[in-house]
């Protein structure tokens, strides 16, 4: 197993007159090809942990290696490049750009890396959208799609630069049961058929049960019964 995420004694405290601890003492190793669910009560620090692991926030203490890089040693441009190349994000609300077509939304992250030509970006966006059942919607605006379809576009966008790691914050949180099931199946397929690692914060216990592994947070700390099956 290749280690993609390695956190040691990771923590985040917000400085204030009375400092606020978001998460602390996080020791966590995540390998390639794993589907990890992060669960815990509301306010237990699930999103905070995801943002730390996804390099959207900076830890106050501890160490974090992502895809073999010691993130404390990276300067901001290197950190941004690592995020762009190695990490995809899917949020509860899709955050697609409303004025851009579905295809253009998926092409955007590729433009930031400047690895592919315009025609290659277009072809890749179409291929990704096709693989997620959206081939008929390439030129539509996000508002013309259903919630489940938009979330699938957001997943396609997260895969644009072919990152090994996907972080998802309540990816099914605002979807009906059928769309949730579809999104779960896509994430599951990404792990078990396309070799990705997915780390998903979820309140959906069914999804947590069906993940390969469950990491449970209580009051900002990993609980003892964090399990693997
Ligand atoms: N910017 C902030 N300022 C003060 N407190 C914060 C801030 N961000 C988060 N918190 C607090 O930190 C704790 C952890 O928040 P976080 O959003 O990570 O929890 P969560 O488990 O994802 O919650 P939920 O399931 O409700 O989304 C909560 O008690 C929250 O109120």
TrEMBL record:
Transmembrane segments: none annotated. Residues 5-229 form the ABC transporter domain. GO terms for cellular component: plasma membrane; transmembrane transporter complex. GO terms for biological process: lipoprotein localization to outer membrane; protein localization to outer membrane. Gene3D superfamilies: P-loop containing nucleotide triphosphate hydrolases (3.40.50.300). SMART domains: AAA (SM00382). This is ABC transporter domain-containing protein.
């Amino acid at each position: 197993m290749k280690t993609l995420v390695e956190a040691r004694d990771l923590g985040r405290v917000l400085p204030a007159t009375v400092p606020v601890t978001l998460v602390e003492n996080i020791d966590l190793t995540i390998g390639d090809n794993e589907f990890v669910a992060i669960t815990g009560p509301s306010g237990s620090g699930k999103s905070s942990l995801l943002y730390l692991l996804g390099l959207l926030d900076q830890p106050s203490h501890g160490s974090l290696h992502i895809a073999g890089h010691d993130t404390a040693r990276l300067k901001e441009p290197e950190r941004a490049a690592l995020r762009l190349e190695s990490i995809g994000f899917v949020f509860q609300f899709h955050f697609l750009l409303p004025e851009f077509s579905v295809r253009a939304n998926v092409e955007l992250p590729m433009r930031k890396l400047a690895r592919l030509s315009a025609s290659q970006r277009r072809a890749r966006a179409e291929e990704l959208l096709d693989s997620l059942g959206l081939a008929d919607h390439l030129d539509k605006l996000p508002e013309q799609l259903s919630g489940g379809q938009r979330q699938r576009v957001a997943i396609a966008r997260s895969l644009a630069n072919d990152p090994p790691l996907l972080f998802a914050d309540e990816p099914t949180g605002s979807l009906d049961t059928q769309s949730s099931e579809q999104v779960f199946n896509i994430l599951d397929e990404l792990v078990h058929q396309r070799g990705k690692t997915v780390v998903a914060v979820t309140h959906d216990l069914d999804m947590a049960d069906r993940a390969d592994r469950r990491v449970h947070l209580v009051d900002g700390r990993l609980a003892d019964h964090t399990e693997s099956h």
